[in-house]
Amino acid sequence: MIFNRLFCNRGILFQNFRQHGWIGILYLITLLFSLPLYIGTEYREVPQQITSLFQANGEVQILFAITFPVAAGIFLFRYVQSGAPSDLFHSLPLRRKHLLTVNLLTGFVMCLVPIWITTAVTGWVWAVLDKPAYIFGGSSIWMWGLSMSIYSLFMFMLTLVVGMCIGQSVLQGLTVYALLLLPVVVWFIFSLHLQHYLLGYPYDDVGRNAEKISLVLRMGSISGAPVIDWELIIYSILTLLFILLSYVFYAKRQVESATQAVTFTLVKPIFRFGLMFTLVLIGGAYFTMIAPRGSSGWGVFGYILGGVVGYIVAEMIIRKTWLIWSSKLLPRFALYGIVAGLILYVPVASWNGYAARVPELNKVNSIKLGGERYTYTNGVSLKLDDGPFYSSDSEYMKAVVALHQKIVDSDLSLLDDPINPGIRNDEYVFINYKLDNGKVMKRKYYIPEAEFRQELMTLKQTQDYKKVAYDTYKLEEDALSIGIRSSISQYRKVYISNPEQVREFKELLSQDIMDQTYEEQRSPWQSFANAEINQDSSFENPSQPKEMSYFEIKPSYDRVLGWLKENKYYEQLDFPAEEVASAQFVKQEINSPGNPQFVYPQSEYVDGNVGNKQVATKNKKIISDLLKRQRSAYQTEKDTLYQIKLNVTRGENIYMILKEEDLTEEMKAILAGQ
Question: CA angle, 362 as apex, 361 and 366 as ends, to 5°?
Answer without folding.
Answer: 70
